[in-house]
Amino acid sequence: MNSKKIKTGIVMGMITFLFAFSANAQSSKKERGAKPSTFSELLEKLDANEDGKISKDEVKGRLKDNFDKIDTDEDGFISETEYKNAPKPERTKRD
Predict the structure, then answer these.
(1) If you average pLDDT over each of 2-6, 23-27, 44-48, which comes out highest?
(2) What's the pLDDT score for residue 29?
(3) 27 compared with 56, residue with greater pLDDT
(4) Least confident residue range of 8-22, 37-51, 69-83
(5) What is the count of structural domains for the chain?
(6) CA distance linking residue 67 with residue 42, whole number of Å
(7) 64 and 47 in one domain?
């Protein structure tokens, strides 16, 4: 009877582990497929001097690398319209 409880405990532990692992894998996929930020969200995150504009000094990463392509009126700031019309990054192809 004691070995039956041990086997049941091991099986339940394995099932719990598999559910936890599966849930974690699914949440990672959701994060990768996350929607891009809205302009308002971008302002909240990046507008360090709170002037309601996004300058090249306030951005980093791919947004900074592509700043000049996005800032089509060349005023040194990214407007909401420019952000919405910005070229979308290309997806990497899987083999």
Answers:
(1) 44-48
(2) 47
(3) 56
(4) 8-22
(5) 2
(6) 14
(7) yes
What values do phi and psi take at 76, rounded to 5? 90, 5
Tell me the Ramachandran region of residue 50: left when phi exceeds 0, alpha when psi lies from -120 to 50, beta otherwise: left
SS3 35: coil
Asked if pLDDT for residue 28 goes beyond 70, the answer is no
pLDDT of residue 92: 65
Give Cβ neighbours of residue 52 (< 8 Å, ≥ 6 apart).
43
User: Are 43 and 55 in the same domain?
Assistant: yes
Domain range for 18 = 1-34
- For Cα atoms 28, 32, 38, give the angle at the middle one, nearest 5 degrees: 125
SS3 state of residue 78: strand
28 and 46 in a common domain: no
Tokens read off for 78: 């990214």
Is there a contact between 39 and 83 (Cβ–Cβ < 8 Å)?
Answer: yes
What stretches of 33-88 show up as alpha helix (H) in DSSP?
A: 39-46, 61-65, 67-70, 80-84
